[in-house]
Design brief:
With 288 residues, the chain is of the alpha+beta class. It has two domains: 3-206, Ribonuclease H-like superfamily/Ribonuclease H (Nucleotidyltransferase, domain 5), CATH 3.30.420.10; 222-287, SH3 type barrels (Roll), CATH 2.30.30. Helix content is 31%, strand content 27%. The protein is built from nine helices and eleven strands. It has a six-stranded mixed sheet with strand order 1-4-3-2-5-6, with helices on both faces. Strands 10-9-8-7-11 form a five-stranded antiparallel sheet. Helix 6 packs across helix 7 (173-192). The longest helix is centred in the middle third of the chain and has 20 residues, at 173-192. The relative contact order is 0.15.
């Protein structure tokens, strides 16, 4: 079984009906993703999710799963999280987990270590299936650590160690989510002398919520934009960095800009995996 089934999940209808209400300051969701790399808007994907939902510090539900990212895990990421392509090959896709994940996020403030990283991956994964980020504000134990402490290192493992918090399986998602919970609760106790501090107080101590980074709008030719929106395969003539021209059948998934360069993320049938293509190197395309 690839994931531990969550219990007591707030019910939602179709995932597209999720409206992201997060009005309860007593509910916090501790979130951690392991990923194939560092750039969610450049094609990197989630390959493991760990999530703990708590009310006033008491755990209501937990959820963890390996995720098939549809692309290779980079050597750098694998060296950190210990995951391999073979380990995640039979796991569910991120979209398959959305009913559980969105249910657990409903009514909650997210807590993560380096929250922008996890939020950007969450927003990118939701965008791939046509769902906007639901609006949950986030608390960031990294930001709190930098604001109120002077640790020698601000990594989750180092902060936990200096606070006397044990680590189970570092750089695995559910373990990191529980460690983030312990770190957050210790920091809030140090700052307030109280346990079960709500998100409203914690957000004021942090200086405001964290949200995903905004992505610039990319304008595309109408037929290419339609192919992305409908997930219809197209045949492209692509010139790679060495100047080699190949014809490829691809299924467009997403598009993003980095500086002046626009990139297309697509499943490439020639390579049998997701690839990222520079739009200015596509010399021609037509419906498959």
């Amino acid at each position: 079984m690839w994931y531990k089934q969550a219990t007591n999940i707030p019910t939602v209808g179709r995932v597209t009906d999720y409206d992201g209400l997060w009005s309860d300051p007593e509910v916090l969701v501790y979130l951690d993703f392991e990923t194939t790399g560092l750039n969610p808007f450049g094609g990197d994907r989630v390959c493991e999710v760990g999530l703990v939902r708590a009310r006033r510090g008491q755990v209501e539900a937990e959820f963890s799963s390996l995720v098939n990212p549809g692309r290779p895990i980079s050597p750098g990421a694998a060296a950190i999280n210990g995951l391999t392509d073979r380990m995640v090959a039979g796991a569910p896709r991120f979209a398959d987990l959305l009913p559980q994940l969105l249910g657990l996020l409903a009514g909650a403030t997210i807590v993560a270590h380096n929250a922008a990283f996890d939020l950007n991956f969450l927003a990118a994964e939701l965008r791939r299936v046509g769902i906007r980020y639901p609006g949950n504000p986030a608390l960031d134990t990294l930001r709190l650590a930098r604001r109120y402490y002077r640790f020698r290192s601000n990594s989750l493992r180092a902060v936990a160690g200096e606070l006397g918090i044990g680590f189970d399986r570092p750089h695995r998602a559910l373990s990191d989510a529980y460690t983030t919970k312990a770190v957050f609760e210790r920091i809030l106790f140090d700052l307030t002398g109280a346990v079960g501090v709500g998100a409203d107080i914690a957000l004021r101590l942090q200086g405001g919520p964290v949200y995903p980074d905004p992505q610039p709008e990319v304008r595309l030719p109408p037929d290419l934009e339609e192919a992305i929106q409908s997930r219809q395969p197209i045949r492209v003539q692509y010139v790679d960095g060495r100047g080699t021209l190949t014809t490829r059948l691809i299924e467009p998934l997403d598009v993003y800009a980095r500086g002046e360069v626009v990139y297309l993320v697509a499943f490439c049938h020639l390579r049998g995996e997701e690839r990222t293509f520079r739009l200015d190197r596509i010399s021609g395309y037509q419906p498959a």
